[in-house]
């Protein structure tokens, strides 16, 4: 029975990763990719809240990009110091970080959104129920999700850059044509 329960949890995580992969592959904007990442993180980890935080400006704490889960915004307000601490460590070290009980959070895990030369952000997931922890397989799945989300964020950024380039070229052509209308 224990093996069957574990197999069911593993199948559930795999299905959540596959769904996330297909949604991330079609994300047009970075925010869409981040929203998919936090929602999928909840499905994978069975946690109460998930957050994507991005590096803050020089000396400032990470900034919250998106969150998901029941009362996630409120949890970020009340447990923001613990969440920011994990995110800062993930962003600095560039590797997954687990934190135990702290400020009413029973367990917290952060994984980097890989980037070059430093992580693009951190995916942080928390449990607030007493006695809850994260299994190694959940952390591995969250790391895979973060990698997929990172690729999607980079693709969305490139698409946006491409759209801006074509808009700028069109403006230049229109200006050039307008200047020659008299001829």
Strand content: 15-25%
Strand order of the largest sheet: 2-1-5-4-3
User: What is the averaged pLDDT score?
Assistant: 88
Total helical segments: 4
Q: Give me the count of strands.
A: 5
Low-confidence parts: none
Global outline = elongated
Largest sheet: 5 strands, antiparallel
Structural class: alpha+beta
Gyration radius, in Å:
20 Å
Order of helices and strands: HHEEHEEEH
Give the fraction of residues assigned to helices.
Answer: 55-70%
- What is the rounded distance between the termini? 84 Å
Structure description:
The chain has 183 residues and is of the alpha+beta class. 58% of the residues lie in helices and 16% in strands. It contains 4 helices and 5 strands; from the N terminus they run ααββαβββα. The protein has helices at 2-25, 30-45, 72-93, 136-179; strands at 49-54, 63-68, 97-99, 107-113, 121-127. Strands 2-1-5-4-3 form a 5-stranded antiparallel sheet, with helices on both faces. α1 runs antiparallel to α2, α1 (2-25) packs parallel to α4 (136-179) and α2 (30-45) packs antiparallel against α4. The longest helix is centred in the C-terminal third of the chain and has 44 residues, at 136-179. The chain is elongated and about 85 Å long.
Q: How does the SSE layout of this entry go?
A:
Blueprint: H1 2-25, H2 30-45, E1 49-54, E2 63-68, H3 72-93, E3 97-99, E4 107-113, E5 121-127, H4 136-179
Antiparallel strand pairs: 1-2, 1-5, 3-4, 4-5
Helix pairs in contact: 1-2, 1-4, 2-4
Kindly summarize this structure in a few lines.
The protein is of the alpha+beta class and 183 residues long. The protein is built from four helices and five strands.
